[in-house]
Amino acid sequence: MKVNHKSEQNLADQLNQVPAQVDDGTQPSDMSPTSDQPSDRCSDGCDQIDVDGIAGSNQHSTLFDALDRQEFKPNDFNTGVAVDSLESAVGYGSLIRQMQAAFFDQVAFYRSEAGGSLPVDEARTRAFHACENEEEAKLLFESLMSKPIHSVDFNSLSELYAGAPRVAERLWELIKKEGRAEFESGHLAANTMFPVPHMKQAWNIARFLGVRESFIDDWNPQGATEVALIDMLAQTYFQWQYWLEQVVLRSETRPRSEHPDYVEWKQWNEEKKKTQSWSEGYWFPQYVAEQSAIDHAVQTADRFNRIFMRTLRQLRDLRRYSPVTINSPQQVNIAAPGGKQVNLSGLEDSKRRS
């Protein structure tokens, strides 16, 4: 399973992959999902809108009108909830709860000292500015479409929702779809392995994805659960490689040591160092000895090796105990007690004749 990673592109680029609606509001025939294209949770074709061919400065405005044309109907999970609950009224697929939590966080910020210690009413006013008309909603939508996906926040979606709720819902579904693509492509797992900018070198990401794709070629994962286990295999394999390297470095090479002049300076400025070089706290961290550092690396490498093997067994057991499905069988032989084989095709033919 290989999916192109596009999470750093504008949302408009994501919309350029599927056909647009025609002038009479009907859907073209090639918009229906095919067997090899899994449908998203959005059930009304929200991801079936394309801005390909819509050029010029009115591109986002035209896309806004297309997203706002039809009523949004999320394909909610069948989960039992109380009749008078918020979930019963708006559905689990709605992003209202997320926007509500973002609003509370923003109000809390303005109420804090860092936000100016504002009164409650003023903090609420500063935290939320609803789009008052369609033109204002279109301007906000154009601003969101110009950003990378990871820069879109719930406060902006909440403001857009107040003026164009269907556009906000569909935009949220598109963001979720891109999040799924990041998971399936392996970049979510890769970013977890290399969380800071200086670690996100092209070679590091390429090595990780290369190992992951090798595992995928071996196992040919079916479904998201097996893909997640493949990600765990690749991550634990990389961690094992790292700590095994640390074992070799700590046991076979010379450790770095402090310069003699610096050691002398520390001894001469011991009292000053204690008062100025340490942050507030109640105890000093202990430095490990050389042998302890080697033992720690060995134990950590062994730990990740065991995690790798455990994940591998889980993937194997998932395949072993899954029900067997045979599509369009011509002839199936099943071993019966005593070592005999039963030909099911022959039994079915006998039943038909009788």
Low-confidence residue ranges: 1-45
Number of strands: 2
**Structural class by helix and strand composition:** mainly alpha
Listing every helix as H and every strand as E from the N terminus to the C terminus, the arrangement reads: HHHHHHHHHHHHHHEEH
What is the mean predicted local confidence, pLDDT?
Answer: 75
Radius of gyration: 29 Å
Helix share, percent: 55-70%
Number of helices: 15
Question: What tags apply to this protein structure?
Answer:
56% helix, 2% strand, mainly alpha, 354 residues, two-stranded antiparallel ribbon, single chain, 2 domains
Describe the structure.
- There is one protein chain.
- The chain has about 350 residues and is mainly alpha-helical.
- It has two domains: about 10-185, no CATH class; about 185-255 and about 290-320, no CATH class.
- The chain has 15 helices and two strands.
- The chain has a two-stranded antiparallel ribbon.
- Strand 1 and strand 2 (about 340-345) form a beta hairpin.
- Helix 6 packs antiparallel against helix 7.
Tell me briefly what this model is.
The protein contains 15 helices and two strands.
Task: Please render the helix and strand layout as text.
Blueprint: H1 11-15, H2 59-67, H3 86-90, H4 96-111, H5 120-127, H6 134-145, H7 154-163, H8 165-185, H9 187-193, H10 202-219, H11 224-252, H12 260-268, H13 270-276, H14 290-320, E1 333-335, E2 341-343, H15 344-353
Antiparallel strand pairs: 1-2
Helix pairs in contact: 4-5, 4-7, 6-7, 7-8, 10-11, 11-14
